[in-house]
Design brief:
binds heme C; single chain; 6 helices
């Protein structure tokens, strides 16, 4: 392939993936994450509030964790329960992992009515 063809291909792929990308909230809902992660109450898994407290300043670490490249920091003794869930996310685009991480981190601020938009 010519270099220019490759560039065009890469640009098109990036555009298509942006157009199809789901928001963090959509990914959270459609994968059943809410079954174990409630907003403010600890359930089978930590609440979104707890997750956002741990990861507020560690967005990159949360992306890595969601991509299966990181280590759990909240409740590693229950990591095996969560590892099965991470498998569901395998096919996501990079920016979708980013949106999901932002959703998890910012849901804490949404609870406090800080007008953080829901559509990351
Ligand atoms: C069957 C219950 C269950 C479901 C469904 C579930 N989780 Fe979890 N999750 C857990 C448990 C238990 C933990 C605590 C384990 C840990 O912290 O390692 C956890 C921990 C986490 C953590 C914190 C990891 C850390 O650093 O310790 C994140 C982030 C997370 N889940 C995101 C998600 C997302 C996103 C989904 C949906 C794709 C999801 N979870 C679905 C049970 C679940």
């Amino acid at each position: 392939m010519k270099k220019s063809t490759i560039k065009l291909f890469l640009a098109t792929t990036a555009l298509v993936s942006t157009l199809n990308a789901a928001t963090g909230a959509e990914i959270f809902q459609s994968n059943g994450c809410a079954m174990c992660h409630q907003k403010n109450t600890e359930g089978v898994g930590p609440s979104l509030q707890t997750i956002s407290m741990y990861y507020a300043t560690k967005e990159d670490a949360l992306v890595a964790y969601l991509q299966g490249r990181g280590n759990p920091i909240i409740d590693p003794s229950k990591a095996s329960l969560m590892n099965q869930q991470l498998l569901k996310l395998k096919g996501l685009f990079d920016e979708e992992f980013r949106s999901l991480a932002r959703y998890l981190i910012n849901s804490n601020m949404q609870n406090q009515n800080m007008n953080i938009p829901n559509n990351f």
